[in-house]
Records
---
Amino acid sequence: MLIYIVKRIMLMVPTLFGIMLITFVVTQFVPGGPVDQMIALLEGHGGPGSEVAGSSMYRGATGLDAERLDELKRLYGFDRPPIERFLGMMADYLRFDLGTSYYYQQDVVDLVIARLPVSMSLGLWTFIIVYGVCVPLGITKAVRDGSTFDVVSSTLILVGYAIPGFVLGIALIVLFGGGSFWNIFPLRGLVSDDWAELGVVAKVLDYLWHMVLPITSSAIGSLAVMTMLTKNSFLEEISKQYVLTARAKGLDERTVMYKHVFRNAIIPIITGFPGYFIASFFTGSLLIETIFSLEGMGLLAYQSVLNRDYPVVLGTLYFFSIIGLVSRLLSDLSYVLVDPRIHFSSVDRHG
């Protein structure tokens, strides 16, 4: 297994390099870059994020002299050849120096750290709810396959799956956020304005109070996939010969289900656990964050692309690509942990 892990880590390097190279090349051809946007600002045509995508460097420079334009290029590092800029950027990234945001004028690392609490709150609670609800629900549905409970629960979760999260979020705001019916839950932020003045218990309750609507909107769509995966995995195992043999020996249904079926049926569910768990800390939902006025990673990514904030775009891509590659490796290794029958010896021998 050690050789397999080393090989996977070695493959991560060219994969990560390729991801960054392709993205960097694409950014060189996207119109309306930071220099164009600053020119538009200086000429009074708008600010960062304004619509300058149709302008070219030549047209944008018509109101500025060559010396001022060269200063702007040096300010953003565009006075150097692209290959030099890319290699310099990667050298900085190896030290986890992700640069400074053009738009926010903050270090990218500090900017990410400031936005992570929102994404972590949404992702982690969604993760807990999805696994905490779907696994027992899926098992129950498999045991009671075809019953009224199975049919009704399948209908409800499929309806929830069919409703987009942002649509559900808007409906919840209208119903419970002081729209047209009840004013029960707050509409913005992770905590109240007076959160720092509250006691420990009151702080926890205030935080959970703010999270109810966005987490509900975020989690509902994921329930159907995980529930049906759990159900189908258990149904497949229940139909196998060893289950019939265990029942023929006189074992009670509970023992058959949780001692024999469970450890085999849970494998495809558990193996996705590491990747999903890690991703839940760092992913953001643009629409959910926008609807509930939460400044998380989803909104940051969108604004960075819109504003051509390349240090944030490339820096966060580098960081999250590493997270994604590591989580994929952990997902593969989890197969061995949950099922000793699986090993990587053949992979180690044949590459």
Note: The longest helix spans residues 200-238.
---
Amino acid sequence: MVDVLSQNEIDALLAALSSGEMDAEELKKEETTKKIRAYDFKRAVRFSKDHLRSLTRIHENFARYLTTYFSAQLRTFVQINVVQVEQLPYDEFIRSIPKMTILNIFEADPLEGRMVLEVHPNVAYAMLDRMLGGQGVAPTKISSLTEIETIVMERIFNRAFESLQEAWKTVVDISPRLEALETNPQFMQIVSPNETIALISLSTKIGDTTGMINLCIPHVVIEPIMSRLSVHHWFVSQKKSRAPEEVDMLSNRVSKAKLPIVAELGASSISIQEFLSLSVGDVISLDKRVEEGLQIKVGEKLKFIGSPGTIRDRVAIQVDEIVSEGVEEDHDE
């Protein structure tokens, strides 16, 4: 949008030019000078801010699903939260993780390529200890996994990928499957060192043990569905209309739902001493007159005004007035 100068600003500009405070030639040079921005080819920007925001939303759901899954499996306090979503070269990610760690290499059809779920040893060994009947405490010295420990780890994280599948459903239906479990990052080369990746960092707490879970997604893997990570696609996908059969089923279930209806004769306040001294035949004075209508509430909301009576020897309420939407009962009595 072009800025429009006011008359005062135009007068001030002309005065500055005539007095020599500003040079017209210098202004022309500033307009023609190209603005140059430095670009680092080693850290190519492949993900826009919009893409990173969408990845954050997806993996916040992933963190919630993981929290539920691990809490049920380990039967202890588990808390997982998204700390950061950033883009960086794959080589930088490899150099940032421990030399001894748990690397779950997996694929997710229909996406082509491999991704990595890196779990800090403290977190992984706390899970392992808990699954094998311990207190969920990570060992002070991290050693290589035995065959039995490897099988247990694979089973834990194989089912964790179901949470990833559920989190990505709003964008694309994926079928993650574990390809390999490694412990040495040097033996894991899923893309070229300069390839840009999206790194989703999850802070994890299991009992008293804390650590990080990092999800590495190469740009080349999700490039075919990058357009679906835009905000526009999210809004369009959320506006999909329901099928007529679903609407009929929903209406049928709602129409059969039971609601509590209460008719209040009135209210009264008495002291505890008066309450304790009540006996058969005592009369409690209410705050409503006999000729006043009774408040009929559906749930906690006032919906009708009615009058008491009987029908076929049973107590009944006749609806005399429908309370308009938004009218609340008077609490100042």
Note: The mean pLDDT is 80.
---
Amino acid sequence: MDRKDEHVSLAKAFHKPKSNSFDDVRIIHQSIPLSNYDETSIATHLLGYELSAPFFINAMTGGSEKTGYINQELAILARETGLMIATGSISAALRDPSVAKTFTIVRDENPEGIILANIGAGSSLENAKRGIDLIQANALQIHLNAPQELVMPEGDRDFSNWLSLIEEIVKGVDVPVIVKEVGFGMSRQTIHQLIDVGVTTIDIAGSGGTSFTQIENARRRKREFSYLNDFGITTVQSLLEANEVPGLFNLIASGGIRNSYDIFKALCFGVKTVGISASILNQLLVNDLEDTIALVKQWQQELVSLYTLVGAKTTEDLKKVPLFLTGENKDWCQARGIDYTKYSQR
């Protein structure tokens, strides 16, 4: 089976609703929100664009006939719902032009959409430019996936030049750059490293959703890395880390987003937008495109209600919503020297 097809098949097999770090985030209810549903906007601003909704279709797949069809449906979904969309890692098309169509189909189906090209952190500036040009991308995602590479039988083993390559790409391309994890989360130290080389938009992509170490371990004949299946920093822990980093940078959350309430909670940590992969992919694979479009539109409507519930007229207002942190989130704050009470005292 093609590796990309295998990834999709395993992601579907391992996808199941489960508890994650968002369950240990509670909204402190205010009984008089002083808001009006009809005057509420869920729009957000990122990369110089106004996005009509504060979530998007994050990087998933591409590189085979089957995944090309999935990308086509995801592009239609993005077009019909007004969502920004990222392709899967476009490196496959740069190595093998015969699979380029499985990525360019996203632009073909969504010619006016905001589309992100995705490449790995070990990519050269030349390949970054080629990836951007291939789909006329509005921005570039660079993904960090060291644990996945080490578990992947055919994965990379040398990460020593990642930071210098990222810096070269940030300085050398003509579109905005996002650096994202792939479900292992980010510490404040990593975020500082990225800011120091010029990165201004960061997707912390924490654990709690799809585990690529679990997927890659399932592909091995000897599954000796099963202890890494839950490796990483959770999405909420990563957001807590990011909020300890001073300075101006755009923050994106992804990893384990199950529904509109998870999107809402992530936004309350001050992120610009929220990326969703597995929940959308599973909906598409189990049901169909029409049902997935309906689900996304339902989430958009639910977010308007949730904003209204807390008195937020705009996405920016959600940063003022008081939060109560419990469980591992509270433990993480105590261990890492983070004042968790500041979230409840907003």
Note: Residues 289-309 form the longest helix (21 residues).
---
Amino acid sequence: MSPIITRKVLIVGAGLGGLCTSLALRQDGHEVTIIDSAPEFAEVSAASILTPHDVQAGAGIRVPPNNSRLLLRWGVDLENMKKSVSKRYHFVRWQDGSTITKFPFENIIQTHGAPYYLVHRADLHAALLDAAIKAGVTVLKNQRVVSYDFSKPEAITEDGRAWTADLIICADGIKSAARPLLTGHPDRPRDTGDVAYRILIPGKDLLADPELADLITDPATTSWCGPDAHLVGYPIRNGELYNIVVCATSLGETSDETWVVEGNNEELCSRFSGWESRVRKLCRLTPAFMKWRLCDLPTLSTWVHPSGKACLLGDACHPMLPYLAQGAAQAAEDAATLRQSLTKYPDLSDALYQYQRLRLPRASTIQAKTREHQYILHIDDGDEQVQRDEILKLNAQNNPVFWGFDQRRRWLFSHDAEKLDEEKGGGWDAPAVASL
């Protein structure tokens, strides 16, 4: 095997995708620098978790096996992170809390080869940042990029500094300034018509109520499905917090200019006043929270600049709606596949196009299925809802939940993005998925 060609790599964006990529590339000795416009990278303490600033950090996040296997391999200290696990995924009816169906999650490691964790996003970011710095990554804040010359390649920050590298990886999110420059086409994210309420409630408040206590003591991921909205709740930080993401039809509270607004508890309680008693109680317990506009993008024509010296990664090229909890996981898979492509192909352009060839079909499929779930989970009561509830119980290909079918769940969760079958496009031709 030929020796690995180590390169000077510049990553724009120190979010989860950028940090994952830095860790993956450091495994092979690449010289990696990350620049980000943020003024601070600070781990949020448990004492401050209910401030509006912290809520904007994204609150809870799920780390499924296709993500955790990579993080553990790259040296991220998940063992000492405060975290929770889910014994099952529980779909319930909005009006009375009755069970629609349950998917067991108790044998995740035995089935998929890696754990499934529920964590605070700030904790995960802090662990990734710590691992990256220990691995020798240079991470710099207050570095806002104002222009690119991808033919060099070069990024210019607002202080006038020119950052040059062999490869520039643009991991700057759904509002990526690099994307239209790289693809050659102007774009704007698609508004889905939904907003996400991101809520954190102290676990002790649930434990004080016998009707809510088992949401902490018997941890599960609970999804209340109702007309025009659904709520997903699960404990994080060993039950210190209960995380809720409400995805609901927008009431016009966000705009093209303002994607995140502060929520109103009175409006929250009013909106869900007809839902089952646990939901009403959780709404009353909700402190300050934020609402986020939910947007995505159509499948891009390319993730790679024609120069073969720059590429997109994560939400910059395939932003995921929260309905399948795969956003961070797919960014980690990008990082793993990019690493493998750079290892195998001496020519940088060949490596980047191989990364795109392997990743684009899988990421685009998950992105599309994620958007379908927006409709599936928000069906109004009636014949269609009754039919949905019945087929949700089936371990079969017509189950509308993507991972409600064992073979698709294996395709999603058991995937190892650093062990790819290139003849099958990184698992794209798996029988259970090819006919979707």
Note: The CA atoms of residues 261 and 291 lie 5 Å apart.
